[in-house]
Write a structure and sequence with these properties.
The chain has about 270 residues and is α/β, with parallel strands linked by helices. It is built from twelve helices and ten strands. The longest helix is centred in the N-terminal third of the chain and has 19 residues. The chain binds ligand LARABZUK.
Length: about 270
């Protein structure tokens, strides 16, 4: 069984417990009462350089524990003070140490759009995301059969979430677009081997039609990697580890953004 298969198996088990505790009908009511979501499509490509999506990530299967994040809301506030356009919150518990409590805390603190980053396998988790105030939700092509992927893209959009549809290669990128995605993430991390190949974005992005918002995900170690993704045409870059390990996340976000902005002549 691959790492991804193991993660998804755990997600399904945890989901079964939550479904019993909180019926979908309750989530739907809470989703209706949640604040209005932000349409993130335009926001992510507002430019001049790529937008930065800063991630609250406590741990990962590839690296184990990454950072003690006592107050995810404080971290998110530092991210947005540094210029992050959106905050990603990993809510998967077993491998990433995240939770819906983290999502709630971040939502309550920042006005920037919040991405629920998890391994979504069905509609329940989208209702959950909206009920907890998320504006975006991750959908992974590698986890979902095509008809379900298309259904979830449609449902997410209908209930006010912007789906960030994640692909790892050209075939998955094609499936993301066919499913109706307007925002496609290209993840440099092979989720079966956990190896990171930063050149994946430059290879796959040109296969996406104009008008699709292109998000480069994973593998940023420093400003040079953000600049590299910008040069390859990324509208947005999603960064986790480098930010949660930083002693000054606000300054690191600002430095990453500065590295990818076109120089201002005479400014
Ligand atoms: O991060 C992992 O090890 C990982 C393993 C298996 C599935 C998903 C995983 N990460 C999720 C992500 O996509 C990243 O958290 C995100 O792109 C940020 O990556 P990074 O900046 O490299 O922390």
């Amino acid at each position: 069984m691959s790492v991804l298969d193991e993660i998804v198996e755990g997600v399904r088990a945890d989901l079964a417990v939550r479904r019993k505790r909180v019926p979908e009908a309750v989530l739907r009511e809470r989703a209706a009462a949640a604040g209005p979501p932000v349409d993130c499509v335009e926001l992510l490509r507002a430019g001049p350089g790529p937008a930065l999506i800063a991630e609250v990530k406590r741990a990962s299967p590839s690296k184990g524990a990454l950072a003690r994040i006592g107050a995810p809301a404080d971290l998110a506030a530092e991210y947005t003070a540094g210029g992050a356009a959106a905050v990603s919150v990993l809510t998967e518990q077993r491998c990433f140490g995240g939770s819906l409590d983290d999502l709630d805390a971040v939502r309550a603190r920042v006005t920037a759009p919040v991405l629920r980053k998890d391994f979504v396998v069905g509609a329940y988790q989208l209702w959950e995301a909206r009920a907890h105030g998320a504006d975006l939700a991750l959908l992974m092509v590698s986890v979902l059969a095509q008809p379900l992927l298309a259904d979830l893209v449609a449902l997410a959009t209908e209930i006010g979430l912007t789906p960030l549809v994640e692909a790892h290669d050209e075939a998955e990128a094609e499936r993301a677009v066919a499913a109706g995605a307007r925002v496609v993430g290209i993840n440099a991390r092979n989720l079966r081997t956990l190896e990171v190949h930063r050149q994946t974005f430059a290879r796959v992005a040109p296969h996406l039609p104009d008008g699709i918002v292109k998000v480069a995900e994973s593998g940023v170690r420093g400003p040079f990697d953000v600049a590299g993704y910008a040069t390859s045409g990324a509208d947005a870059v999603l960064v986790g580890e480098a930010l949660v390990r930083s002693p000054d996340p606000r300054a690191t976000v600002a430095a990453f953004l500065a590295a990818s902005r076109p120089a201002v002549v005479g400014g």
